[in-house]
Amino acid sequence: MFGVTDYVNPTSCVEKSVCEVIREMTDGGADYCFECIGLASVMQDAFNCSRPAWGKTVILGVEMHGSPLLVNPYELVKGRTVTGSMFGGAKAKSDVPVLAQKYLNKELCLDGFISHEVCFEDINKAFDLLNQGKSLRCIIWMDK
């Protein structure tokens, strides 16, 4: 769904680390690794799961605790890369109208990302769901 080909549940990795499991699944490392949580330890794991020589790690989460990301410079010289992506690199003024039109034309399926809908009066419920990690995207209806 949404382009994901495989995933690993870290709680199911009891005898091996997540990185070892991913390296085995991909015969050496994933070409692309994405970190979406905002923890330096997970960023490090994503980097370590990427393929030596050309693996790309994309950091989407924001590290809020001030922990540094430790990367061996030798791995960068050999070809691995780490990059960040705020809003997927989209430019709001030019890209949002195009994406909105694609959605309206049913060329872009976004409905699967919506996990909850609440009335404006229940906006605090939306924040509670987000803080509890129970909501992916919540629609807040202003007119209901």
Report on this model:
It contains 5 helices and 5 strands, in the order H-E-H-E-H-E-H-E-H-E. With 144 residues, it is an alpha/beta fold. The chain has 2 domains: 10-89, 3-Layer(aba) Sandwich (Rossmann fold); 92-141, no CATH class. The strands form 2 sheets. It has a 3-stranded parallel β-sheet, covered by helices on one side. A two-stranded parallel ribbon has the order 4-5. The longest helix is centred in the last third of the chain and has 13 residues, at 92-104. 11% of the residues are buried.
Describe what is shown at a glance:
The chain has about 140 residues and is α/β, with parallel strands linked by helices. About 30% of the residues lie in helices and about 15% in strands.
Give the full name of the CATH homologous superfamily of the largest domain. Answer: NAD(P)-binding Rossmann-like Domain
Q: Can you tell me the number of structural domains?
A: 2
Strand content: 5-15%
Residue-averaged pLDDT: 91
- Specify the number of helices: 5
CATH structural architecture of the largest domain: 3-Layer(aba) Sandwich
Count of DSSP strands? 5
According to CATH, what is the class of the largest domain? Answer: Alpha Beta
Shape: globular
Extract low-pLDDT stretches.
none
